[in-house]
From TrEMBL:
Organism: Fimbriiglobus ruber
Name by which UniProt lists this protein: 3-oxoacyl-[acyl-carrier protein] reductase
InterPro entries reported for this sequence: NAD(P)-bd_dom_sf (IPR036291), SDR (IPR050259), SDR_fam (IPR002347)
Gene3D superfamilies assigned to the protein according to its UniProt record, in alphabetical order: NAD(P)-binding Rossmann-like Domain
One Pfam family cited in the UniProt record for this chain: adh_short_C2
Assigned protein family: Belongs to the short-chain dehydrogenases/reductases (SDR) family.
Amino acid sequence: MRCDLTGKVSLITGAARGIGQRIADRLAANGSVVYYTDLSADEARAAAAATPNGRGLRLDVTNAAEIEAVIGQIVAEAGRLDILVNNAGVNTFAHRVTIDQFPREEWDRILAVDLTGLYEMSRAASIRMRAQKSGRIINIASIAGLVPLRLQCAFVAAKAGVVNLTKAMALELGPHGILVNGVAPGSTLTEGTRKLFYGDDGLFRDSVQRMLDHVPLARPATVDEIAVAALFLADPENSYTNGHILVVDGGWTAGYAREF
């Protein structure tokens, strides 16, 4: 997929690897100046170095002062901010347990990044976008925010919050020329899911086939397949999609199950 993002300035959170990096790469390949941000400045710079349009910066989405400083720096350098992709997110590996056993500190850690961090990023970016009367905010949610999954209550709650926050932001910001949409990936092949499912020593390797039995395409997504969806939502010609959650899950949530 190709679109013309020449002259656009983008900020991607969690862009040092995985889905975030591929979204950043896609936006840069289509002409945008892209700020790759991540907790590690070195890793963000390394990811950005692959494209002449890339810039790498450290950014902790749980730190409101750091968010304001980074967005201020981007606007000072580039003159504007056109596209924000809220991709940074975490889940739990060690605490795949029912809610009665789920630790409060793990709940707080996940909500701080996945939901409150997205709020802080969107709030700071939308101030600049309202001033320029245009912008795109793309939130990376999950099918877990649409169809709850077991043993990850904090992640499910955070992503459900992302889904409805996306819609609320679309209502509020649409009149100011800012389109807000989300992407809800199904299971996607990343470093994290290799540790959980798809690697030979994955924690839940024995159950991966049972999960894929509910996916008509019978495989996880690639990160590039998720990035294409984000690029579609960023495309200037896609000018009437607002408040939408684009599900990219191979048909998982369509209700398909091979054994039924």
